Amino acid sequence: xxxxxxxxxxxxxxxxxxxxxxxxxxxxxxxxxxxxxxxxxxxxxxxxxxxxxxxxxxxxxxxxxxxxxxxxxxxxxxxxxxxxxxxxxxxxxxxxxxxxxxxxxxxxxxxxxxxxxxxxxxxxxxxxxxxxxxxxxxxxxxxxxxxxxxxxxxxxxxxxxxxxxxxxxxxxxxxxxxxxxxxxxxxxxxxxxxxxxxxxxxxxxxxxxxxxxxxxxxxxxxxxxxxxxxxxxxxxxxxxxxxxxxxxxxxxxxxxxxxxxxxxxxxxxxxxxxxxxxxxxxxxxxxxxxxxxxxxxxxxxxxxxxxxxxxxxxxxxxxxxxxxxxxxxxxxxxxxxxxxxxxxx
Length: 345
Prior knowledge:
There is one protein chain. The chain is mostly beta strands and 345 residues long. Helix content is 5%, strand content 35%. A 6-stranded antiparallel β-barrel has the order 4-5-8-7-6-9. The longest helix is centred in the first third of the chain and has 10 residues, at 4-13.
């Protein structure tokens, strides 16, 4: 799937960015909304979700303490649906880009302008703790997470399940560094990890990650609608491999995401370059045509990116597909790694 057509259309129209194309179709709505539409055949396809799903509430935060956040006005609970997964994203203020999981049952129980967060281990929050009132005066929005349970409706016809993992439509997520299969059961609702019996339909597909979808039931059309993020996108980086997505509906180059050694940054958080692949930071990009990942690595000069198989410097090429699957392996952590919006809205 390529989005080069859309990029040309938007720049020519002077829109900056309004929507996204995957394949031949482009639908442009009023900013900042968009539509991704792509035909997918039987087989394995990479997917990421760069459009914001369901912005349910927005406002100015009055205060925060522990895992509790109070908005200055409004009824957050009235905007939420029981059983759905949400996150709070800071869109303006000193902590712009932070994404914090919402404890939906606790927030519904609290009512009014209070939001109860889920922080620390087991959550997808970008912060483990929050100092008192560190979010005061920040503008934030409540956005809906993509979950395994919400995936079938994004396809037409919908994904089909089977009680045999080998026959069902399924996805592969990178879990603890390994691609792990989750398949849709015959009831069309329940998801399970292959070989296990726990229902995984509530498992979140985070905005900064991606997956591979295995279609077995037939060709389908993938349709994603949503808003275009205009705030900076925070991706806390830890040593090791992780699925990686930029949060924006444009293909981007290593240079565009700041994947280079910055001499002004503290040494302990810098990108790592080496002329040996195993000692360098790498980007593994899934090639749909071959069904395999292509490895690119940061060279010792700290700027150039090369395929592990050789060839020219690709640091300026848009390797990181907005709706593709990229695995980033880092040598050093960088908890505050930010991706700047690649357009003006």
